[in-house]
Write a structure and sequence with these properties.
2 copies of one chain form a homodimer. The first copy, chain A, has about 230 residues and is an all-alpha fold. The first copy, chain A, folds into 2 domains: about 60 residues, Arc Repressor Mutant, subunit A; about 150 residues, Tetracycline Repressor, domain 2 (Orthogonal Bundle), CATH 1.10.357. Helices cover about 70% and strands about 0% of the residues of chain A. Chain A has 11 helices and no strands. Chains A and B meet through α9, α10 and α11 of A and α10, α11 and α12 of B.
Chain lengths: ~230, ~230
């Protein structure tokens, strides 16, 4: 059991009161098992398979996590914290371009380290309000990073937040193809893209997909939890 | 039965002599069925499932295509022709940069139109010498396109042929995520990348993966036929 699991467990509990120690242990075991199962089978893995991996009964499972959204939120709470923190650190950088590019690199590195998290970023989890609120916070921060880097004249005017989504999709393709054989190949893709985002513009670009199409695509691409989609999303 | 199948059938036949008309029909049916099955299940689909889809017996199947490599080669022969032709057309362009970028766009468009073909480009098919020879031809042409565009001062010196492989992997990620929801999203990714390839350099880049690592990754990513790998490839 790792200390992060403990933290995650207490930070995003569906039960706010302190858990008894065996309940805490079960909770941490379930989260650790869910990390394994989600990592292996994607986020569409069943609650039952997570319970099996954790070695707990299905009743215990649902007592700790009444819905899959809550389980996903608990598993990825620390990643979401890091994601929000990356926005804050980027905004604290006095250099708007360095802040912007550092943020892009950090998010792509988080995706390289944990591909399940990239799925979480692109799906809506209506049962997990705390996570949704943090995601919205990070998104607002990203819009501000974009505005700052355009104001300073560093970022091309035709860059939109949807280009980060495109980059995450592209990065997923490189990560999935290269895997352990060339684990740093994605860094070169990200560097090419960041250099292209910089002024002066290298030319016209085809329009990005509109928001509706892109978010439909993201929901389509995300696994399993998409069935809970409510039309929310940014 | 479509005329292209006929052409494909006669161009890359395992039997060079003219086929009797029912044999020709079977051959075309098998190729059409293989397109369907490979498109649906990937290139690791079994010969038996292709025979089932074609409604021919397994004996007929193996009489027409003694190995899966030969079937794959026949299915994709016309695509490989188009691929080689794209190199030739690009080299015929008096403007080295326009030739180079047009080629990148064409190859990415071919990938968007037929994702199975992108797999074929990145795997070695030792049983299909004619296809392998054409692939090698296209690769030599691409190296020449790169050299021309560097000589004219348009293409960054740090671009390597491996960057096209990276781009194809990235493009696969966008295509797979966006699909029908945003079918043109990939064009924007490709435009960002091409603009970044243009001089002047936007800065240092992380090294590309070395050839061995990249081709190991490609074989790992390609489906099924990888078991026939012989260490060949460029």
């Amino acid at each position: 059991m790792n200390p992060r699991d403990q933290h995650t467990g207490s930070a995003v509990g569906s039960a706010a009161q302190p858990l008894r120690s065996d309940a805490e242990r079960n909770r941490a075991r379930i989260i650790a098992a869910a990390r394994t199962v989600f990592g292996r089978d994607g986020l569409n893995a069943s609650m039952a398979s997570v319970a099996r991996e954790a070695g707990v009964g299905i009743a215990t499972m649902f007592r700790r996590f009444p819905s899959k959204e809550e389980l996903v939120a608990a598993v990825f709470a620390d990643r979401m914290d890091a994601y929000v923190q990356a926005t804050e650190e980027a905004l604290a950088d006095p250099d708007p371009w360095r802040g912007f590019t550092g943020y892009i690199e950090t998010v792509c590195a988080m995706q390289a380290a944990d591909r399940g998290f990239a799925d979480v970023l692109t799906m809506s989890l209506p049962g997990a309000e705390a996570l949704e609120a943090r995601r919205a916070e990070a998104y607002q921060g990203f819009l501000e990073l974009i505005a700052r880097a355009k104001d300073s004249g560093d970022l091309r005017e035709d860059f939109t937040s949807r280009d980060l989504v495109l980059l995450l999709m592209a990065n997923a393709g490189v990560l999935s193809a290269t895997g352990d054989a060339a684990p740093d190949a994605w860094r070169r893709l990200v560097a090419w893209m960041i250099q292209s985002f910089k002024t002066p513009s290298g030319g016209e670009l085809p329009d990005p997909p509109d928001d509706a199409a892109l978010y439909q695509a993201m929901r389509r691409a995300s696994l399993g939890v998409t069935s809970t989609e409510t039309g929310k999303g940014h």
